[in-house]
Amino acid sequence: MSIQTASDVPMIELKNVNKHFGSLHVLKDISLSVKKGEVVVIIGPSGSGKSTLCRTINRLETIDSGEIWFDGAKLPEEGRELANLRSQIGMVFQSFNLFAHMSVLDNMTLAPTSVRRVPKAEARAEAMRLLERVGVGDQAHKVPAELSGGQQQRAAIARALAMHPKAMLFDEPTSALDPEMIGEVLNVMTELAREGMTMVIVTHEMNFARRVSDRVIFMDGGSIVEENTPEAFFSHPRTRRAADFLQSIQK
Amino acid sequence: MSLSALLNEYGGMYLRALLNTWRLTAICFTGAFIIGVLVTVLRVCPVKPLRAFGVFYVQVFRNIPGAAMLIILVYALPRLRILLSFEMCVIVASVLIPSAFCSEHLMSGMNTINPGQIEAARALGLTFTQMITRIVIPQALRSTVLPMTSLCVSTMLTTALGSQVSLRPHQLELTGVVNYINSRAVGGIMAFAISAALYVMTALLIGWVGARIDRKVRILR
């Protein structure tokens, strides 16, 4: 009998996860394990289930069968335990989803003060540090609509970081951005990865995936078709479908 | 009677009636607003029977004419050994009916919230209560200031139900005071016109305040 030490426990583990949208089988028997500090990029054609997969990890999407574990604990079904677990997983969305009626600063402090009961002054100081770090400190007192897309997304990343998450999920974080703003968001993410954050990233940014990830997951038709190192995946993918996909996006 | 004769003789009563209408409107709109918010929370909460109750509440009170509501309160409740004063009957009717409309406005206000913000709130670990009180209700309120302004005006008009029960002279509101005057003197159309002017003035005031609040709290998108 082997004893697992804390560092052996995967940060995120999916075991035989299945999900249907009506008659559509969107996740087919997905098993995936993400180690602490690992950066995993999920790529694939649209409709392949990659966003859905990402969203099951904090149960924004429920699953029909299988198990999902986070840092050694099985994902609770609902209620306070689920809220508590979600607070440990940062999530960044395609459409930023900052709270429209609050200043950027209030967006940052809402969850730390109400979920974690951090004193207000402390939360504000930390929020300002994080906003400075992602380069939008001077926007703290504006409302989200006054910021550019790139600034909003960087603020959204800072908002997730304010909860000191054990892992971060990125669901196509640059897909809604104008091309000139993609770089600034990817830079923040690259820095996070270098600092050892556990990250699961759904993205279409292939250069970024190649440069930053430890592992690439290629999905198609609801299944994981290929799992590979970024170097091997992008230079000589093992599967035909991955090769076709890479060729189709290089046109 | 001429305008000056009416004002000479009944000016004080009109003033008191105006203040009574304002008082009733303030009480009833506040009550309707609070109940409307609570019912709306029920309508979106995760517990199915509570949701069903919220929908039922709105359907019932949205579809009862004010006069019928008043008859129920005045004549039916005493049979259940619940005896309310006439003024309280007017207040209850003018709270319950607008509260249903308040909830409808808030539901449409909620529909303006991008569902992504709800997901973000859940992803941050906010509980249902925190999400409702910090994200959903504040945004729904901010985007429904103008319909709420109309609701406040229609609540004021609903308090005219006070003219249909026998209130004491010092409790009369703007419509009741006309009945009172016309039963004692021949006030004619002028007696109504004075009350009408005071209603219109109040409505304009409410509209002006509402527009100012709306400009201040409107959400940039």
Annotate the secondary structure layout.
The complex is a heterodimer of chains A (251) and B (221).
Chain A: E1 12-21, E2 24-34, E3 39-43, H1 50-56, E4 65-70, E5 73-74, H2 79-86, E6 89-92, H3 104-114, H4 120-133, H5 149-161, E7 167-171, H6 179-194, E8 198-202, H7 206-212, E9 215-220, E10 223-228, H8 230-235, H9 240-250
Parallel strand pairs in A: 3-8, 3-9, 6-7, 7-8
Antiparallel strand pairs in A: 1-2, 1-4, 4-5, 9-10
Helix pairs in contact in A: 3-4, 3-5, 4-5, 5-6
Chain B: H1 3-44, H2 48-62, H3 66-76, H4 86-110, H5 115-123, H6 128-142, H7 145-158, H8 174-184, H9 188-217
Helix pairs in contact in B: 1-2, 1-4, 1-7, 1-8, 1-9, 2-4, 3-4, 4-6, 4-7, 5-6, 7-9, 8-9
Describe this structure in words.
- The complex is a heterodimer of chains A (251) and B (221).
- With 251 residues, chain A is of the alpha/beta class.
- Chain A contains 9 helices and 10 strands.
- The longest helix of chain A is centred in the C-terminal third of the chain and has 16 residues, at 179-194.
- The radius of gyration of chain A is 18 Å and the shape is globular.
- Chain B is mainly alpha-helical and 221 residues long.
- Helix content of chain B is 78%, strand content 0%.
- Chain B is built from 9 helices and no strands.
- In chain B, α1 (3-44) runs antiparallel to α2.
- Chain B is flat.
- The N and C termini of chain B lie far apart (56 Å).
- At the A-B interface, α2, β6, α3 and α5 of A face α5 and α6 of B.
